[in-house]
Automatic annotation (TrEMBL):
Alphabetized UniProt keyword annotations: Cell cycle, Cell division, Cell shape, Cell wall biogenesis/degradation, Cytoplasm, FAD, Flavoprotein, NADP, Oxidoreductase, Peptidoglycan synthesis
Example of a GO MF term: FAD binding
Protein name: UDP-N-acetylenolpyruvoylglucosamine reductase
Source organism superkingdom: Bacteria
InterPro entries: FAD-bd_PCMH, FAD-bd_PCMH-like_sf, FAD-bd_PCMH_sub1, FAD-bd_PCMH_sub2, MurB, MurB_C, MurB_C_sf, Oxid_FAD_bind_N
Documented EC number(s): 1.3.1.98
Occurrences of domain FAD-binding PCMH-type (ranges): 31-203
Catalytic site: 174, 224 (proton donor), 294
The encoding gene: murB
Cofactor(s) needed for function: FAD
């Protein structure tokens, strides 16, 4: 890895690189092993340089946003982890808001509010980044990113720059072309509408209160763990299986919201994986329903 880091610095001298960096610092669960090389680009050009380098040199590359709906296994990640959190510019053109991949969706929704633009209120409590939101077509309270997404600038795994229109992203429930083709999001544009600031603020306050009253925000977690199975609600199936409070190590099925697994202290990613497996097996046995994970699980076992 020393040689790879040296080559990267030759290609992009300003690139920030950390070796053997703990990924527990960058995930909402506060778990996860180390990255061989943790690379923090500040510009789209740096991102492209790293992606092209990894493609040409056959170096494993993993993209990391702000780690909100993610579990990194305890064995960590080999090769390069590309952390896009510093690509967080947000700006407006007419009724369009442009946001960098690393911008937090909550910040984008607040920016829209401050500009009296409506359409992103539903995102005021989604903790993910813009890139992650496009990857999984994030949504909450009846809204999805695809509802207001206009276009996006992405890179292919070979570092080729593409400009995608909304239709190109083929977004559906918790899925998009970004995930399917492993595109790397650089920037997204959201088409919004002019409105009055007060009703936007009121809607966001209402959704924030609903979120805070129902979700276990007092503990680290990876957010909603399971996708909604057809005809059911994952949280309800878990609750009716009497799994709330079930715990392995420091990972516990939340007593406040059954769809969340929280770190009540000292949890490892392995604890999380064991709890997820137990929940899936129990719900399958009780209701013959397969719970599919919504959370992204990456890395190697310890």
């Amino acid at each position: 890895m020393e040689n790879i880091a040296k080559k990267l610095n030759e290609i992009a001298p300003e690139l920030l690189i950390k070796k053997n960096e703990s990924l527990a610092k960058y995930t909402y669960t506060k778990t996860g092993g180390n990255a061989d090389l943790f690379v923090m680009p500040k510009t789209n050009e740096e991102v492209q340089s790293v992606v092209q380098f990894c493609s040409e040199e056959n170096v494993p590359l993993t993209i990391l946003g702000n780690g909100s709906n993610l579990i990194v296994k305890d064995g960590g990640i080999r090769g390069i982890v590309l952390y896009l959190d510093l690509l967080n510019t947000i700006y407006r053109k007419d009724t369009m808001i442009y946001a960098g991949s690393g911008a937090k969706l909550i910040d984008v929704s607040r920016f829209a509010r401050d500009e009296s633009l409506t359409g992103l209120e539903f995102a005021c409590g989604i903790p993910g980044s813009v890139g992650g939101a496009l990857y999984m077509n994030a949504g909450a309270y009846g809204g999805e990113i695809s509802d207001c997404l206009h276009k996006a600038t992405v890179l292919t795994t070979k570092g080729e720059l593409l400009h995608l229109e909304r239709a190109d992203l083929a977004a559906k429930y918790r899925h998009s072309t970004v995930a399917e083709k492993n595109y790397i999001v650089l920037e997204a544009a959201f088409q919004l509408e002019l409105s009055e600031k007060l009703p936007i603020e009121a809607k966001m306050a209402e959704l924030t209160e609903a979120r805070e009253s129902k979700q276990p925000l007092e503990y680290p977690s990876c957010g909603s763990v399971f996708k909604r199975p057809p005809g059911h609600f994952a949280g309800r199936l878990i609750q009716e299986s009497h799994l709330q409070g079930f715990q392995i190590g420091g990972a516990q099925v939340s007593e406040k919201h059954a769809g969340f697994i929280v770190n009540v202290g000292g949890a490892t990613a392995t604890d999380y994986m064991k709890v997820i497996k137990h929940v899936q097996e129990t719900v399958k046995r009780n209701f013959d329903v397969d719970l599919e994970t919504e959370v992204r699980i990456i890395g190697e076992d310890a």
